[in-house]
Write a structure and sequence with these properties.
alpha/beta, eight-stranded parallel barrel, globular, binds 1,3-dihydroxyacetonephosphate, Aldolase_TIM, FBA_I, glycolysis
Amino acid sequence: MNEDTLTTTARALVAPNKGILAADESTGTIAKRLASIKVENTEEARRSYRQMLLTTPGAEAFISGVIMYHETLGQRTDAGVPFPAALSERGIISGIKVDTGAKPLALHSDEKITEGLDGLRDRLTDYRERGARFAKWRAVITIGDGTPSEACIVANAHALARYAALCQEAELVPIVEPEVLMDGDHSIDRCEEVTARTLGEVFTALRRHDVLLEGILLKPNMVISGKGCATQAKVDEVARRTVRCLLRHVPAAVPGVVFLSGGQDDVTATAHLNAMNRLHADNPWELSFSYGRALQQSALSAWGGKADQLGAGQKAFFHRAKANSAARSGRWDE
Ligand code: 13P
């Protein structure tokens, strides 16, 4: 393992003013996004949409890296330049989603286990040759009646640790993503408790597998009220509880925490990140973003699948990237 390469890449991904664009929706998930703007899910539609985001002029001031899906990593711009090369020309680092999805956990009907470890070593070597320098694996934890089970948390933490170790062996920085879903009517207390348990198990597993903490990024959910909860915690409370939970469970050796947006609307996701950085400027890690929907929603609508609306889509993406860049150091001004 080349520790210098890993730590340098991890730090570059959370460089001042910058965060990550998650544009790694699987073909099934992007189908839903395209359907929302009445665009057919063809390979060319997926390429055009990703090209719009990836070639937005000036976005390199706010975006350090882009997470892509397998298909996207092999696609090219209109000018024939492979996406990873087009990004690299602007100083943006290419990332790749390497899990193969969250599947039902046996004997635990409402819970999921993320798969994709079989053959992963060879796939990682191939992805690195094709320009990727970091990877992502998402584990899903569901809050419900009697869930999450210990089996679900421990199995997912174990898979995340095995994935992270394989990535570091291949000189790819692993983004370790244990997502506690915001679906449900649970309180923010319950979210904090489950997030704490999950992060505790994840770091136990990472240590057990000798993963270099300086060479990973953590991608967690924020500590937030369930979507259906009657009482919705305010922005400052989300910020305070999230940072408290991280301080208790995330070692200072980790260079950065890059949040997922998880279904929050785009402005709320920015406001939460801003409050965390404004209220807690002395955190041991960088607190930044790796948003999917919260960076893409407005761009997707503005573009609408129309070639003549490319500029409008890019303008919307630029706007959100700039806002989150400011929020990442508590300087966002509504
Ligand atoms: P959202 O920000 O839409 O949650 O997506 C982030 C992500 O990469 C989920 O794996």
